[in-house]
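Sanity check

After download, print the first record. It should look like this:
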Amino acid sequence: MKHTLLTLGVIAAPFLLYGVPSYADENLAQGWLFHSDATKGENITITGWAQASVADSNHGKQLAPATVFRHSDGFTLDQMGIMVEKKIKSNLISRVGPIPVEMPKDFDWGFNITAMYGADNFFFRTYGLDDDWSINKLGNFDRTDYYTTLTQAYLDFYLPYFNGSNLTIGLFHSPLGHEIGFALPSPAPANFYTHTYSFVHGPAKHTGVLWSSHLLNNPTTSKLSYELGLVRGYNNWQDIHNNWSLIANLRWRSADFKTWVDFENIYGNSTDDSVTSCLCGSPIPTSSALASDSSLKRFQSYLTISHDIDEKNSLAMEASYGYQEKSLFADILNQIPSTSLSNGGVDASWSGVNLSYKHKFNTQLSTSLRGEYFDTDGVNVMLPYAGKYKALTSNIAWSPVPYLRLRPEIRYDWYTGKAKPFGADKDTPPPLTQGQYDNQFSYSVDLTFFF
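Expected structure tokens:
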């Protein structure tokens, strides 16, 4: 652990000591490296980030599932990403909601292409697109197994109708969940290095179309927008059975934009959308062959309420619920006797609530605290055993210069149920069934460089 901390320090030192001159001139946290008059004139931005970390736990060994993306102890290059984007002039942001600007009168169009490399990309691969690239040959689920993904590739259109509307077409990050997506500055807008159990149960990306528009757009009162989408389920470029899922979201903003309420939902036929050969697609397996049923519906819902108490303090609460017909793991791994197959899967659900608090000491330093509770019948490749999972997470985020963030974090997870979900003694790919403990204390330091 001391060696890996030293490694991270060596990486950080040049940026801490010398800075980047072009940043000071442009006063940009991202986009300064490729900033030019040519791209500025076309409203095209090129931004990027690189995130690396060291982590360990009281058990050592495999840190997942508590740390979600993080596989095992030691040094990891989590993400290196680059995004080429032409933003549209609109009074709302697709997958984020309305923004306090006047409605543009003219049609506009834009695009987004995002590519990533690193250990996190095990979870960002898309079935039928980048899952079988030669560089993405499956490893041993080790922290040094790095993958490359085309994370997003979509077109955005603004139409000056219905108080302002957007149409997104292509491959885009999911509009569901509190800690996913690159609609806001990258990497994903999360206050924590580790993620919640509700996060890992949701989709990472979709292929399809998403329509965003307003229901209420009065400049002096609150705003309400909606999103409707048709997508190829969870993390799929193509669906084995040509199935589509429906997205239906509502987003409310108070007049002063201090309070946000987001109600997000997805529903569709999930049959066989978890692909064993690439360990990709949906993280919630079903089998039409074992269930003798080609229509296995999945529903998932998120309610997020966030509020800025003042300039320094903010709160966020996320409640989630999901339901799967004929869930495979809820049957095979959680029935008695274990490994028996009662009916090719059993109907299963999961639900949870997370509460987080953030305090900004100043523009450079902040601290965050999060508590979570998650109850599952055991449906997910990362969390295949039924039971109740609880966690407390705390960190400090320090930005000595705006393009650099250093974030030490500690987390404690504990579980109530019939299994041992934590502390597997080797790097084994999902489903994670090799645990030895019912609790885990983990700690990490991640460094993110924005350019």
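If your output differs, re-run the checksum step. Summary of this record's structure: Confidence is low (pLDDT under 50) at residues 2-7, 9-26.
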